[in-house]
């Protein structure tokens, strides 16, 4: 039930941002609440990821299929884990040679109503911190 949609213009190419967002295996290095990430079953347009998310005393694994349209879009297909559902995408729109608009969307609901009620109040702040972590990572590597 928590939903967040955000558009931002960043001073990077779509290819740079696509590579950063699609590099799920490195999320634990910079993304809050991602304790581990393993990717496998790689194809040109998709791969599977096992991700361990943690918040305070809670840790939960989830599995997703990451669908790739290079330099344009990344869609997350939820497979298994603590969610009733998870919808997530990143759309990259070039504005100039070095400016890209990111359209980020996430919507999910936990299977556990207690966990849902505990985390819903911090959801907005968590997403803001996550977006900031991607921006900071882009600045560091580009």
Automatic annotation (TrEMBL):
Domain Coenzyme Q-binding protein COQ10 START: 10-135
GO biological process: cellular respiration
Transmembrane segments: none
Domain of life from the UniProt record: Bacteria
MF terms (GO), sorted A to Z: ubiquinone binding
Recorded coiled-coil stretches: none
SUPFAM superfamilies: Bet v1-like
Family stated for the protein in its record: Belongs to the ribosome association toxin RatA family.
PANTHER family, A to Z: COENZYME Q-BINDING PROTEIN COQ10, MITOCHONDRIAL, SPERM PROTEIN HOMOLOG
Protein name per its UniProtKB record: Cyclase
Naturally occurring in which organism (per UniProt): Candidatus Odyssella acanthamoebae
């Amino acid at each position: 039930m928590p939903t967040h949609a955000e558009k931002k213009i960043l001073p990077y190419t779509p290819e740079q941002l696509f590579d950063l967002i699609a590099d799920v295996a490195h999320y634990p290095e910079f993304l809050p609440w991602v304790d581990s990430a393993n990717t496998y079953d790689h194809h040109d347009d998709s791969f599977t990821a096992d991700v361990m998310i943690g918040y305070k005393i809670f840790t939960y694994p989830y599995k997703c299929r990451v669908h790739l349209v290079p330099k344009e879009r990344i869609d997350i297909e939820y497979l298994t884990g603590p969610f009733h559902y998870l919808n997530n995408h990143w759309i990259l729109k070039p504005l100039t040679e070095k400016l890209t608009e990111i359209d980020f969307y996430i919507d999910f609901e936990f299977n556990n109503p207690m966990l849902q009620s505990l985390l819903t109040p911090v959801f907005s702040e968590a997403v803001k911190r996550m977006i900031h972590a991607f921006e900071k990572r882009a600045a560091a590597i580009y």
